[in-house]
Structure formats: structure tokens, C-alpha cells
């Protein structure tokens, strides 16, 4: 039997799970008057709350009291999502020891949730959330436990793309070494390299270039060099030119990368390449 969070005892369980008050949590669960899987109107369980907060002993107690590790709240999230999002690698390890699955994705849900900490509702996975937040240790755990490195959100965004956007160079490196598709594009046609270039994340660009990603025209009608020029980051431009990105290749609007900037330092490195001919 499940209890709504709004009942006093269930509310106390949630409070104990959130605060890490193990003694109170044990007292409540051992009373026999409240279920370990009590949940609120969104389907959030005490195990999810404890996992999000990183309270290892509370997570363990709830599991031992019979909490459903793979229960999905309304948005599709499980306890593993919350532990992964917050980078609680010890909790992630514990959840896997008791059978947590990496197969779930968040669902599109039209119901508004005022608790913004409880997460994406668009086909994200625990790996995607960990990549977004830069939690390298958790990412290694997830991949070792069967998470699919190229599984995307509904808009085609892969963990690698998200890590590149956020500037998480070490995450990008780990994902690439574990088989991430360097040229995977999302629905807007952008790749991880394009996004890293647009954001000026030179360290991420360096990691991606080690795996020879496409430097040509992408499905979005532009190139990574165009994106780097738009970012105004000279180092990003130099890295791409050093990898033989073509400054004479126009975008879908027939613009060269040099047409997109008035930055003298960037123009100085682009124009000689154009005048001398790209080789």
C-alpha cells in the first residue's frame, strides 16, 4: 500500500530522507504505519529524495525496507536519475548493487512541477544528466553498468553533445573512449564539435579533434569553423585551422567564416589562409 506524502507520517519520511535523519527514518519505517514506497502526487518516492540528497545510509535503509529501486515517478525518473544528476557516485554504486536499471528515460509530461530540481522530462537518461553536470565518476559507473553511450533525448541530443556544450572536457574524453559517435547530430543539425566551437570551449575542441570529427559543412548548413569565429575565441579558431578546417568553405548563406567577424586577431589568422589558398 502506498501513502501520499501529504499524510503526516509519509511527510515525516520525506523530511527524514531529505535531511539524512537515519534514526527518524528507521523509527517511522519500523512502526509499520508507513510504507517504504510512500510517494507524493507526482510519484516521487522517499528513495528518490534520499538519492537526490546523497544520503547513503538512508538510501540503504529504504532499500532494505523494500523500496522499489526502479519505480518511476510521473516523469519517468527513478532514484538512479537523481543520484546521477547530483553526482553521488556512492549512492549510484549502491543502487546498482541492488538492481538499478539504466534502461529508463524521462517522459514528456505536460504537468507543471514547481520543484525545478526534479528534472528533465524529454527522454533524458541518467547518463545524459551526469554528462550535463560533468560527473565523470558517475559516468564511468553508468557505462560499466550498461548505459548506452549514444542514447539520445527526443530532440536527438546525445550525452556527448551535451557535455561538449557545457564544456566538460574530461567527460567528452571518457565518452569518446567508450564509443560515443563524434559526429552525431541532433535535430537542428549541430554536432558536439560545432557546439563546443560556438561556446568557445577550446579544451573540448582539443579532445574532439583527437577523434577526427567532420570539419565540413553540416546538416545545419554551417561548419565548426564558422561557429568558432562567431564565438570570438581565437584559440578555438586556431585549433580548427590547425586541424585543416577550410576557411574558404562557405555556409548555406554563402558566407565565409571571415565574413562573420570584425575581430582583427581572428581575421589575421583567417585571411592569409584564404589569400594563399587552403591546402
UniProtKB/TrEMBL annotation:
Q: Where are this protein's ANK repeats?
A: 42-74, 75-107, 122-154, 155-187, 220-252
Keywords for this entry? ANK repeat
User: Do you know which SMART domains this protein is assigned to?
Assistant: ANK
Chloroplast as a keyword of this entry, yes or no, is no
Q: State whether keyword DNA damage applies.
A: no
Among InterPro entries, the record links this protein to: Ankyrin_rpt, Ankyrin_rpt-contain_sf
Q: Protein name, please? A: Ankyrin repeat domain 29
